[in-house]
Amino acid sequence: MKKGLITALILIAIFASFFSLYQRFQVEEKNNNVDLVYDIRQFQELNKDEVKLSFSTLKEYGVSGIAVYEDTLQNLQNSKDIQIIRGEELIKRKMISEIKEIYENFSYDSDSAFLIFEGESLIKRAENSINSWEKLINIEIKSKGFEKNKLLVFFPEWGYEYLSLSLGFDNDLISEIEKSGLKVIPRVINDENSINWDDKNDQLLLKNITADYTIFAGNTISGYNHNLAETAEILKNNNIKFAKIESFIAKQKGAENLGHLLEYDLLRVHSIEQAEMEKYNSKKVVDRYLRAVRERDVRILYLKPFLETKDDLKIAELNKNFLNDLTTGLKNEGFSIGSAQSYDFFSNSKLMLYLIGLGIAVIGIILLEKLLGVKFNRLFYLLLFFVIIAISGFIYIDKIMFLRKLLALGSSVVFPAFAIITQFIDKKENYLKSFGKTILISLTGALLMAASLSHLSFLAGIDKFRGVKVAFLLPLILVLWYYLRKEFLNNNSLKENYKLLKDFLDYRIKVRDILIVGFLGLAAIIYLARSGNFSFIPVLDIESWFREFLEDILYVRPRFKSFLIGHPILLLGLYFKDKIKAFMIMIPVLVFATIGQITVINTFAHIHIPLKISLIRSFHGVWLGLLIGFIFIYLFKYLNKVRERWLLDD
C-alpha cells in the first residue's frame, strides 16, 4: 500500500505540474510585441555634432517611442538653461553685473540663492511652477522681472535638495515628438535625496500625463514610502502601465511594492548604460538586447545611440545600421515591433499546490529515511499528514506566496540529492541507464519546482525564488553525509565509529591533501559566488567569448556547471564507479555530479525566463554533457592503456 501511495502521489503531482505550466506557456507564447524606446537626452547629445538623426528617421527604423524627462533645476543647470547664483558668491564678489541693481533689493545671506531663467518659453514654465514650489518647500519665494526675457527667483534659504524642483515636461518637445508619429514615454524623476518623494508633487505631474506607460527615473519610485498607493491609483485611472527596469540594471526602491499594488500588470525594461555602449560593438549590443527579449521576457528595449565610431562609418549610419540589425533580429526570432503588452494574469490553484506539495513531500520523506538509515512505517503517514496540515495552515493564513517559495526550495533541495543517492551511490546497473534516471529525477524536481512558482508575480519579476545559495549548498551536504554514513558508519558499533573518528583525527596530512582540500575550497567559493543573479567574481573575457559562441550556434547556451562539469563527471563516475576506491577521489566526483543535478533544477527557478528557453537550455546541457563525458571516458581508458604499456616495458 505504501509503495502504491507513493507512486500515485508522485504521478498526480507531475500531472498537476504539467497542467500548471501549460497555463504559463500559453501566456508566454502569445505575448510577442516589443517596443523600442529612444532616450531623448542621448538623442540630443548625438545631434549636437550635426549628425541630424531625426525623429522621423528613428520611426522609420523601428523606434516606437521617445523617453522624455521632466525638467528639474538640476538638469536645467547642467544644460546651462538656467543660472544659479549663491549668496556666498555674491558676498565674496560684491557684485554680479547681471543683477547688480536687483540683488540689493533682497535680504540675502550666504545660504541664499538666485535663479535666473531666460527665454519666453522657459519663463512661462517657471512662472507656472512657482506657486507649487512655495507650497512644496514651505518657504517664501519672491520673484521679480528684470530685463527682457529674463526672470529672477529668490530663495532666502537654499538647499541642495531644491535642485530636484521640477518645471514638468517640455510641451514644445512633446508636440514635436508626437507630430513625427512617435509616442511619448514620460520619465518622472525621483531620487531618495529629493524633496519630491514624500509629497504630492509627482502625483500631480502623473495625473496630467497621457501615455501608454511610464518609466520612472532616479533611484526611487514616485511616492515611495508615503504615497505609493496613490501612485498606483493614478496609473490605473489614467491607464498608464508601469514599465519596470530590470533590477540588475537599476534597483529602484518601491518598484516591487508598486508591482504588487498594480497586481503585476507591468512591463519589463532592459537598458544599456551609455558608457557600456561605447565599449561594445554593434553586434554585441544587438545580441544583448535580443537575449533580454528572448530569455527574460523583456518587452521594452530602452535604446541609446553610439556616440563614437571606431570604423569608417559615419555616426548616423552606424546608428541606423544598429537599429536595422536589432529590428531584423527581433523579427527573425518571431517578435513584432511596437505596442508592448503586459502578460495576462495566470496562477495555478490552491488544489494544484496541495498536489504538488504532496509529491515533493513524498520524495522528501523517502530521502529522510535514507539519510537516517531507517524505514518509516506509520511515521511515513504521520509525516505526510503533517505536510497536509502545514500546507492547509499556510493557505488559511493567506501565506500562499511564502508557501510557493517554500515548496520550490524543498523541491530544489530534495530532488538533486535523491537523484544522486538513489542512482549513483545505491544502484549498480548500466551506467547509461543510471545517468538517464538521474536526469529524469532531476527534471521531475524542476517540473514540480517551476509549477510551485506558477504565478504571474514571478514571471513579472516582482516576487523571486529565495534561498538560491541554500538550494546550491544543502544537496551537496546531504549527498556527502549519506555517502559517509553508508561507507563508513553503517552498521558499525559505537566502538568502531569511535575508532574511525580517532583514525581520522590522527591522519597524517600530506602536501597532496592540502592541495586537494585547497582546490575544493576555492571551487566551493567560486561555485557559491557564481550562483544566483549577482556575483562579486567577474566574468572573464574568454568566458564571455565562449558564451557568445555557444549562443550563436545553439540559440540558447547551456550552463557551464551542467555540460562542462556536472553531467560529464556524473557519467564518468558512473562508468568507473566500481573502480573508484579512494575516498579523496570519490568525494569530488560526488560533489561535481551533484552540482550538475542542482543546475538542472536551478535552470527552471528563474521564472522570468520563458519555459521553452529553460527546456532548450537543459536539453543542450544533457547532450553536450554526455558527449564530453564520453570523451572523458575514452581519454581515461586510453591513458590507462598507455600506463599499462609503460609498466610492461619496465
Number of helices: 25
Radius of gyration: 31 Å
Query: Mean of residue pLDDT?
Result: 84
Shape category: elongated
> What's the β-strand tally?
12
Cα end-to-end separation: 62 Å
**Helix/strand class:** alpha/beta
Strand residue percentage: 5-15%
Can you offer a commentary on this structure?
- With 650 residues, this protein is an alpha/beta fold.
- 59% of the residues lie in helices and 9% in strands.
- The protein contains 25 helices and twelve strands.
- Strands 1, 2, 7, 8, 9, 10, 11 and 12 form an eight-stranded parallel sheet that branches. It has a four-stranded antiparallel sheet with strand order 3-4-6-5.
- Helix 14 packs antiparallel against helix 15 (378-396) and helix 23 (560-575) packs across helix 25.
Topology:
Elements: H1 2-29, E1 33-39, H2 40-46, H3 55-60, E2 65-69, H4 73-78, E3 82-86, H5 87-93, E4 113-118, H6 120-137, E5 142-145, E6 150-155, H7 171-179, E7 183-187, H8 201-207, E8 213-214, H9 228-237, E9 241-245, H10 255-261, E10 266-271, H11 274-279, H12 282-296, E11 300-303, H13 315-332, E12 336-337, H14 350-372, H15 378-396, H16 400-426, H17 431-452, H18 456-459, H19 468-489, H20 494-505, H21 511-529, H22 541-554, H23 560-575, H24 583-603, H25 611-649
Parallel strand pairs: 1-2, 1-11, 1-12, 2-7, 8-9, 9-10, 10-11
Antiparallel strand pairs: 3-4, 4-6, 5-6
Helix pairs in contact: 1-14, 1-17, 8-9, 12-13, 14-15, 14-16, 14-17, 16-17, 16-19, 16-24, 17-23, 17-24, 19-24, 23-24, 23-25
